[in-house]
Amino acid sequence: xxxxxxxxxxxxxxxxxxxxxxxxxxxxxxxxxxxxxxxxxxxxxxxxxxxxxxxxxxxxxxxxxxxxxxxxxxxxxxxxxxxxxxxxxxxxxxxxxxxxxxxxxxxxxxxxxxxxxxxxxxxxxxxxxxxxxxxxxxxxxxxxxxxxxxxxxxxxxxxxxxxxxxxxxxxxxxxxxxxxxxxxxxxxxxxx
Length: 192
Description:
Helix content: 40-55%
Radius of gyration: 17 Å
Shape: globular
Strand order of the largest sheet: 2-1-5-6
Number of helices: 6
Number of domains: 2
Order of helices and strands: EEHHEEHHEEHEEEEH
Distance between the termini: 28 Å
């Protein structure tokens, strides 16, 4: 996967091999555990960074890796962003050190073009396989936030990620995620 980073209006691309995304999941989880206790974001201490704040923190580390020529760290940080923000196209880290001003550009429609064998007329909904793949992109995996767990759902109407309510256990968040995934899958089948 390729992530575009825009630094001072200059685009840079980092190629993150798919194998790295799979192999580095434990490292990504460790990054999240490091942020669970809170993080200094510029002048503000954030007690429990949410998904976007975590991505902004990692994007700041990505900027530092690029500036220092640390390709390995840069690739890992780009991998974290691609893993934690499905549909991410580009990131524009704030070069003035204001981490919370870092911006992300998500794909407007994370659906991939359906192959002729699986396509249906407009308004008829997606095939079962295409709907399952799209629902998987629209509903993130469960992630830890402070002492709780949540997941996020991509809202195509607003073009933004919406965080689910905080669940006390990973199992409860997983159950709620399954319900959200099923609802999204059925809506896509119906053409929603």
